[in-house]
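Reading a protein record of the kind used here takes little practice once its layout is understood. The fold follows as a row of integers, each naming the local backbone shape at the matching residue. With these conventions in mind, the following record can be read line by line:

_____
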Amino acid sequence: MKYQIIFATGNAGKMREIREIMKDTGMEILSMKEAGIDPDIVEDGTTFEENAYIKAKAVAQAVRARTAAEGGGSRECDTIVLADDSGLEIDYLNKEPGIYSARYLGEDTPYSVKNRSLIDRLDGVPDEKRTARFVCAIAAVMPDGEMFATRGVIEGRIGYEEKGGNGFGFDPIFYVPEYGCTTAQLSEEQKNRISHRGKALEAMKEQLKKRIS
């Protein structure tokens, strides 16, 4: 049996990272839009894992409903649904914006504005108190209904200005001391190797191999 992955996101930057990291699985990887699925999802969980599960289950239900509407029958491939929830935790701000990272100051607010706001809120705060981390939880719903999740974390601190154009979101203000730059200044290969999403996806790949090999 062949498998395809539908990833519960519409973020183009995120899909580029996902496809690059998951390319060696040999599976087709589709976004929700590419799969023609657009369920109404209310992310009301209290943790990254809970929100990832909410999204994955909603998309999996939409996939099952469509399959049933099409009459079921034999299929060329089974669908694995993956969904992530990720965010930035800043220790000095009581781990804000956390699970509300995407909605910080409003979903449609440009990240340049969001980043400026966070830098301003840390005005006068010294390096040692600017510690932060990116967290990513990825939930999977297998064709048989089994569910599990993986998590990845990268530690760093908040910079004093935006730097770099290779990333998206909060990347330009997330400084990684070991590399002496922000995650937006890393090459795509470097970022995929050390990022929270990269770590969570690598762990997910290992879990999938165990289940479909």
Q: What stands out?
A: The chain has a mean pLDDT of 92. The CA atoms of residues 89 and 132 lie 5 Å apart.
